[in-house]
User: Fold this.
Amino acid sequence: MIAPASPSGYRPSMGPRQKALIAIVDDDESVRCAVQGVLKSNGYESRSFSSAGEFLESGQQRVASCLITDVRMPGMSGLELQARLAEAGCKIPIVFLTAYGDPRMRSQAMKAGAIVFLGKPFDAKVLLDSVRSALKITSDGAG
Assistant:
C-alpha cells in the first residue's frame, strides 16, 4: 500500500523559493534522458525512474509536483500507476507520454484526471506547456 502524501492526500504547496520536482517514469532510457534534458534546460528539477514500481518505492510521489509517465511499461503500466496513486489519495498531476496510445487509453487516463495524453515523439513546447499547467494545479492546491 502507498502511504498518502498528506492527511488531505495532497502535497504541501511550494513556497516562493521552493523548486518543483518533476518525476519521470519511462522504461525507455532515451525518453527519460530527453524529457530530463528539456526540463533541465527550462529550469526544472526532475528525477527519473525506469518503472512505476521504482517510482512508488522511492516515496517521491509524496514530494513530486508533477508526474510524467509512459503508458505501456513492463510490470505496472502508467494507467495502473495512476490508479494506485488515486487509491492512496495522492493527487499528483499526471502527464502521459506514449507511442501506443489509443482512444480508449486516452479516455481512461483523462477521465481519471490526467492533465494531458501526449504521443511520442513529443513536442518539447507542448510538454513544457503541459508541465506548467500541472504545476499551476499543484501551486493552486486544486485537484
